[in-house]
Amino acid sequence: MTIIEEAPTDEWRSGPMSNSPALDPGPAGVPAPGKQLFHVARPHLLSLLDTRHARLTVVSAPAGWGKTTLLASWTHRQRGRAVWVAGGSGAGFWHRLTTAVATRTPIPPEAAATADRDGPARLAGMLRYAPAPLAIVVDDCNDVAGPDVLADLAQMVRTSAGQVRLVLACRGIPALPLHRWQMDRQLVTLGEDELAFSVDEAAGLFAGQQMALPRPAVADLHARMEGWVTGLRLAATALAHHAEPAQAPLETGAIDLIADYLGAEVLAPLDPQVRRMLMEASVAERLTAGLLNTLTDRVDGAAVLADLQRQGAFIRRSPTPGDWYRLHPMLSRVLYRELTRQDHDRVGRAHRRAADWHLIQGPPVEALRHLLAAREWERAADVLHRHWPDILVGSRRLDVGPIVTSMPGPDAPAHVVLAMAAERLDAGDTASARHLLHLAETDPDEGEPAASIMTALRLATARLDGHLHRVCSTAAEILAGPAPESSAAGMLRPLALLSLGAAKLHLGQSTEARRYLGEAQTLARRRDLDHVQISATSYLAASYAALGHLHDAVRTAREALELGSRLGLGQLTDLSWSRLALAEAHFQWDRLDDAWCCADAALDSSGGDRLIQLTGTILQTRIRVATGRLTEAHDALRAAYHESGTADLPAPARRALTLAEAELRLACGDPAAARQCLTSWSDTEPSPAQTAVVEGSVLLAEGRPAEASTVVAPCLTRPDAGNSVTFRAWSGLVAALAGKATGHRDQVMHGLGVALKVADEEGHRRCFTAGGHAVLALIESVAPAMSAYPPVAAALTSATDPLVAEASDPHLPVHQNAWPTPTSTLVEPLTKRERTILRYLQGTLSHAEIAALLYISVNTVKTHVKNIYRKLGADRRKEAVRLARDLRLL
Predict the structure, then answer these.
(1) Radius of gyration of the chain (CA)
(2) In the chain, N or C terminus with fewer CB closer than 10 Å?
(3) Where does the record place the HTH luxR-type domain (predicted)?
(4) CA-CA distance, 3 to 42, in Å (whole number)?
């Protein structure tokens, strides 16, 4: 069995917590955290619950999102400063609450004399004597207390003189005027987004069951569950004894367990008519009031959808315009399975109605899917015939399984087979799409547009399978041939431009990619090809991010995401590139939390695309390195190497993975290992500027500043439109630091000027933060003479701590305190190895983990740590790190 446990650690880690701190026995009725079971620590949620200014905290999510476990764990750690109320009838709520408060609060005789008064008055009298702070935790507040009781309780907490907090766990939205608490900044809310497991936490959950699932399988399962905690636990339970769990992440056994849980916890409390309505609505990926009314012959779809969301019935409203709702993928899958078991005629009727609605409202690819599911073969082929340029583009991350599992007959016409191939392509099933395309090619339809449809299918499957050189050659042939714009062959041109631009981007040719993608975007707008326009815009955002044009990247990425949501194409796999562009911009702006969230969203919507997954993993590795989570970074890279070992990855992707490892090794204070990474690839393609930055940084760490200057000089003296301005800024700082070491002031001025110019124009901050006190000292000493950039220089020098500071604005980050003045002296210089281990001590790595990373014994690490403490005059780890920072050793 697996449970979720929250531990007060600096970074989450998974595993048996034999050394966890002693817990408070806790108030009566609080579920006891498991001591011998596997735990997944979630300190970020505990930090949110510990917010001191909040008088009201609402933890709201549907069943199975870990609300009770989280609050029970938090309550146990309050050391007697929290009371717990759960279960029982609403009529006895006040008695249970006042009894719980009495057991935790010393009540004087005069307060006890008020026992004959009603519950609210008695509680108000008791709260006057409550120690500060006191938290009242109400679990399942929808069931244990009525709306009037909750309102009285909230008002009592609001007006109490002591520091009393109210913490509510509920499946929907509590019947309280939350806007008033929000305006007073006394409200903290935790919803599905906060409670959902991350991919890392899901991986830890499966690792605790001794299941070695590859990272893509975990990411795919996490995406289908949307981080739903209980769903992941049930899947782990079902797969625990499976011979090949990676091959069947959602087998029948897991679906049966999930169906039983959702049936009891979500569907059983609903009205039978509402359950019937949801079954018919499960044919659709997304719902609006109009579509729901069409599917179910209702007229109150808007009110029903809003009520279901308020009740926490596994349905969510999209934050984008259009009033779109989505059933949770697992609920949708369970309902659809039940619908097909009960009445096949209802299934076909629902799909036909959905198809008719999408033929009018769009997108046409949804109409195609529903017509095929309804076995309306000729109508489906007609939709493909009319809309193929906007259907045969790429794939979406669909949350439903294959809806067409058999051919219409042994001699199915080619145009019907092509329609089925297009549906499989849209679902990301390129193997089935290629098979169906081969069947259609054996007896093809004559003339156009059949020939163009087949060419488009070949081009799209090659792009999705990562056959980049084949994509380039096929697209070049299409673009070379003359074709009237209105002809079927002419409609291939925007698809060819999109595919060629995407391939060039993956091959590291960002400038060419931007040109082709811009042309594809323009043509798609002119011809109303929504799918092509969204994909081209998303790849265009990625090309801007690759070139370091962060503002253009963010603007373009948001345009693609907004357009996709508005047009019902928000699940396009290509939109992951927009999310990665946002993640890269936030990373370079030093907004690490935002960068992590965007990268996580990209991985969730990757649909198994290995380049998206590799790019997101590399970016998250760099974020881990930036935040001192070196063990996590090492594990993520090791998994990425393992999973990409047999993949036919383009050279730039492999090089990016190697450079990420080099940066990690350098951050660990091991320049020799970093240098070995730089010489590990054998291809002869020109190295990007990032390679020069990493190599220059390695040379600086090795005490060879003159050679570091030589390595990065081409990035500064020969600016090229194809080189990223991001690494131009990093190169400038490497050159400046090298110039300072060699006593060349002109070089310092030039390098720093280049970096500050980029920071001023694009808002880059990470390169300065990563440089620490050495870069800060440069700016403080040189920037006053550089009158061109005083605002950005002043902003950078106001940072509290360059190792951890986070920019609050992409143009001009503001921090409160100045860099601390050294207050200690070093008893004896640290050796090179001691400096390396000192850097590891900043995180939460154990001695054994540090030893494993450095390939030395644990006793050797302990000896070095003792020497570090002695030389710094420290007694504890945190004190040693603080003193080292004071001395600017870190």
Answers:
(1) 30
(2) N
(3) 823-888
(4) 12
